[in-house]
User: Which sequence fits this backbone?
């Protein structure tokens, strides 16, 4: 598949096509099967992982808050794990917010973004809404839509963000609406002109400020929800005939001018060199910030060699520059909110050394004396090798000196992603607890066979609690009877 660049002229006569149009054309031409089984398998496991995060985070405060503002309706899209059907936009908002609640969603380091918590809520909501109108979207269409959604968001994020910009604006909230809109437009089979309009409208909703790490506030949890709801709205408006600025990305007052105050850092190309960005996405093993992942894993290796973490006298953590500079990551406390601890590399490393595991329970109690002492003791240091390798690789080294003079360290050149078996086990545990193992098995089987599924809306329906999995047309008939 040919790469699509912002400065590439149209194949035919006339002026160069806009970037939104080039993205639309590349997305329409994409075929998941052309990238091999690895890409389709990755998309499926990312969907399973997203649902796992939603089920596990169902009872968190931000999840409850997102559900509380949804208005129920008879024919709508599922709010995952609940018995609520809502408008597609409201369902996408609730599911995007809930999926982000653990801070364990999939990650694309090159764009510093979490695309799955925008793309999947958008697609599941739109697919189920179409299904309720007897206009089912196929599983193959869902796979293609997800592929281009991840791709578009990742390529834009790479071209837009660096460490300086990411200190101010949340990458997921900025590029998420555009990637989500590209995915949704492809799922619904919009025309090239309609896709261009959807992208333009979505770009107008780009946002998400990074003040929250400085205060421990919960703004961050809602960023994917806002992005998914905006993506749904942009697609629905485009389908209704709305149009937007075609040069919204590269124009003199467009996205790059507004956020970068200049041109893209690199050409924006879908599927450059025949590669799909979904393969650069990794599934987090640890429920914490991306930049804390590798350090926590290294700390666990060190912890295995220490009988008493109270004997630690010095503690250093070597990292890429981007990890130390991201808001909230270089923070030694005090910790008033769980999110501060999940963002803090010092806290993550300290809790791993103290508890010997990294799990959600590490962030339940924020006043444990040994953890707080180790967090204050930890010194973050920039490592030239890790910095040069980032974002392709995310390295970290944790080193401690004990009171008896013994030095213990462990160095990892890259994060170790959660394995497929770990992701599936997390899904079965969380979905099984919420819906029962039989339903969890059915959802997993549908996703594994997505390319042959005739109605992708079935996934959302099965994610409803109670009798919500009954098809919408059956509920309507029962209500009339």
Assistant:
């Amino acid at each position: 598949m040919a790469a699509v660049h912002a400065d590439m002229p149209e194949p035919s006569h006339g002026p160069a096509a806009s970037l939104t149009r080039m993205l639309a054309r590349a997305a329409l031409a994409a075929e998941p099967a052309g990238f091999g089984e690895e890409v389709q398998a990755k998309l499926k496991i990312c969907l399973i992982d997203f649902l796992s995060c939603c089920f596990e985070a169902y009872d968190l405060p931000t999840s409850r808050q997102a559900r509380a503002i949804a208005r129920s309706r008879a024919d709508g899209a599922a709010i995952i794990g609940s018995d609520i059907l809502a408008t597609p936009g409201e369902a996408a908002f609730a599911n995007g917010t809930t999926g982000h609640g653990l801070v364990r969603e999939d990650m694309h380091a090159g764009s510093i973004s979490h695309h799955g918590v925008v793309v999947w809520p958008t697609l599941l909501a739109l697919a189920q809404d179409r299904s309720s109108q007897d206009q089912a979207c196929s599983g193959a269409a869902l796979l293609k839509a997800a592929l281009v959604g991840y791709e578009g968001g990742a390529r834009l994020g790479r071209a837009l963000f660096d460490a300086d910009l990411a200190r101010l604006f949340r990458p997921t909230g900025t590029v998420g609406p555009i990637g989500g809109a590209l995915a949704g437009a492809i799922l619904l089979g919009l025309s090239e002109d309609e896709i261009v309009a959807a992208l333009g409208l979505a770009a107008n909703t780009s946002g998400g400020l990074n003040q929250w790490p400085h205060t421990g506030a919960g703004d961050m949890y809602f960023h994917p929800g806002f992005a998914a709801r905006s993506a749904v709205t942009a697609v629905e408006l485009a389908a209704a005939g709305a149009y937007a600025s075609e040069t919204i990305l590269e124009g003199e007052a467009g996205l790059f001018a507004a956020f970068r105050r200049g041109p893209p850092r690199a050409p924006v190309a879908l599927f450059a060199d025949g590669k799909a960005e979904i393969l650069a996405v990794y599934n987090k093993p640890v429920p914490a910030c991306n930049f804390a992942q590798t350090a926590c894993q290294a700390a666990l290796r060190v912890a295995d060699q220490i009988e008493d973490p109270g004997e630690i006298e010095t503690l250093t953590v070597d990292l890429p520059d981007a990890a130390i500079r991201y808001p909230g990551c270089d923070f030694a406390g005090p910790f008033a909110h769980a999110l501060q601890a999940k963002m803090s590399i010092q806290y993550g490393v300290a809790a791993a050394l103290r508890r010997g595991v990294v799990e959600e329970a590490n962030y339940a109690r924020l006043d444990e004396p040994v953890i707080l002492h180790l967090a204050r003791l930890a010194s973050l240091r920039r490592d030239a090798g890790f910095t040069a390798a980032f974002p392709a690789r995310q390295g970290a080294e944790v080193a401690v000196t004990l009171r008896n003079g013994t030095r213990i360290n462990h160095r990892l050149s890259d994060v170790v992603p959660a394995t497929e078996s770990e992701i599936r086990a997390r899904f079965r545990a969380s979905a099984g607890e919420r819906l029962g193992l039989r339903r969890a098995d059915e959802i997993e089987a549908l996703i594994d066979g997505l390319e042959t599924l005739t109605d992708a809306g079935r996934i959302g329906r099965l994610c409803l609690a109670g009798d919500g999995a009954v098809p919408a047309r059956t509920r309507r008939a029962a209500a009339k009877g």
